[in-house]
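Journal club prep — side note

Before the paper discussion, L.F. wants everyone to see what a predicted structure for a comparable chain looks like in token form. Sequence:
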Amino acid sequence: MSPFEIQAFIDEHRNDLAGSLDGLSEEEARRRLVPSKTTLLGLVKHATFVEKVWFDEAVTGRSRAEIGIPKTPDASFTLDSGDTIESVRDAYLKACEHSRLAVEHLNLDDLLPGNRRGPLSLSWVLLHVLREIAQHCGHADILREQILAARQGLPA
């Protein structure tokens, strides 16, 4: 298997996650339906953080401060007043494109030096990102279902 084959699976989930915001109002995308900071818009914003951690920090060794991302995953769910469906989705799609370009020249067994755990192989990183984005797609499906049910006056 090549990095491009694994990336194809990742890209399916990336597209699904970005699409989870389709047809929603700004209020719906920001609606908190669980005790955590998790919202649909926050999930996509967090996924941007994920892309930058694994395909910028891990590849280049640049710090999170240099990259311009929060120090912690929890902080990456925080929505600012200027965050909109359009701005968050656009940032996510740009981060995904940057991620693809960052590893296009690498092989699965190449080591990425910039992770706090130490060097990790590209295959480890790709499989980790696939798992994480797929997990967040599941969260997004449930939140979206609750939002759409509320539109119809159905119990969430």
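L.F.'s comment for the group: The first helix runs from residue 3 to 19. Keep this in mind when we get to the figures.
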